[in-house]
């Protein structure tokens, strides 16, 4: 399967510029091409020569002219011919397996970190796919219910692949170290604030202690259809308040990356000091994460548009 198939397919949905095609291909979770200018425009020239597409120059006042490409009847026939070709077998070339193949030289601690980092990356990518699917942020044609279902099933296929990879890494860890990783779940509560759902994390029993915990929290938000998070001071480990640990930076960046809105309630009698106090002062200027002395103030901010 070549990038030509993808470009013909995209143009069968709508006319587009080379830049439009580049953006869709680069953002796609399943189109395996870089989508650079050389790739895109080389294919478009070939398609023009073959009569599979036409182009029309649109002049814009105050901006460069742009070429709009449109598929022809011959192009649609060529796309259909390519779709009906026998499917290629799936590829399972993973760079992690190459790392793992020579990992016997590592210490047990180094090997454990290698596996943990890989697992964390899988979880992050899986969460991103779920977010795209739930919010329809990824490009997809919607010309019929059947087509929408096909594209939804493509996303489900990708997510199931990541879920299977997570199960495999769990088995890998258990086999290598002969221990079962504790199945620790965040003790969160789903609450309602003025008719809006929010995830509340208020227990010190299952604190956010590492980057994976905040990913689990974000996953809980998507599961319940919300991006609002209410945190109590005890729900964050001591490392969060020590900037040198890096935990606070990782947590706040995840809120930004996954477009969460989180409020942390720290009672006024708890003294904020040093760099952490500076971090809070800066974050309180934004709209992703803020700290409040009183819970009602935090709730009010969360429900604001």
TrEMBL record:
Provide an example Pfam family for this protein.
Answer: DUF4180
The residue ranges of the DUF4180 domain are 195-302
Looking up SUPFAM superfamilies in the UniProt record yields: Winged helix' DNA-binding domain
Q: Which InterPro entries match?
A: DUF4180, Tscrpt_reg_PadR_N, WH-like_DNA-bd_sf, WH_DNA-bd_sf
**Transcription regulator PadR N-terminal domain boundaries:** 7-80
**PANTHER family attached to this UniProt entry:** NEGATIVE TRANSCRIPTION REGULATOR PADR, TRANSCRIPTIONAL REGULATOR YQJI
Q: What is this protein called?
A: DUF4180 domain-containing protein
Organism of derivation: Cohnella herbarum
């Amino acid at each position: 399967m070549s990038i030509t198939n993808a470009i013909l397919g995209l143009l069968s949905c709508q006319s587009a510029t080379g830049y439009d095609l580049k953006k869709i291909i680069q953002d796609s979770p399943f189109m395996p091409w870089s989508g650079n200018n050389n790739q895109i425009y080389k294919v478009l020239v070939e398609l023009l020569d073959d009569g599979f597409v036409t182009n029309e120059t649109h002049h814009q006042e105050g901006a460069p002219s742009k070429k709009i490409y449109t598929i022809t009847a011959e192009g649609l026939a060529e796309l259909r011919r390519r779709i009906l070709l026998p499917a290629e077998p799936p590829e399972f070339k993973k760079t992690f397996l190459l790392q793992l193949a020579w990992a016997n030289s590592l210490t047990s601690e180094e090997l454990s970190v290698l596996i943990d980092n890989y697992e964390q990356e899988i979880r992050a990518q899986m969460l991103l796919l779920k977010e795209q699917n739930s919010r329809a942020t990824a490009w997809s044609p919607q010309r019929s219910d059947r087509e929408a279902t096909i594209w939804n099933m493509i996303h489900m296929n990708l997510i199931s692949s990541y879920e299977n990879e997570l199960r495999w890494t769990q088995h890998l860890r258990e086999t290598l170290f002969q221990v079962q990783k504790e199945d620790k779940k965040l003790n969160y509560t789903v609450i309602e604030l003025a008719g809006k759902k929010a995830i509340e994390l208020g227990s010190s029993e299952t604190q956010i202690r590492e980057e994976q915990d905040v990913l689990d929290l974000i996953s809980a938000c998507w599961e319940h259809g919300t991006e609002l998070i209410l945190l109590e001071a005890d729900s964050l480990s001591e490392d969060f308040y020590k900037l040198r640990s890096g935990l606070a930076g990782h947590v706040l960046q995840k809120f930004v990356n996954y477009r969460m809105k989180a409020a942390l309630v720290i009672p006024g009698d708890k003294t904020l000091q040093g760099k952490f106090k500076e971090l809070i002062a800066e974050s309180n200027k934004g709209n992703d994460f803020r700290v409040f002395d009183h819970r009602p103030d935090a709730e009010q901010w969360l429900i604001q548009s």
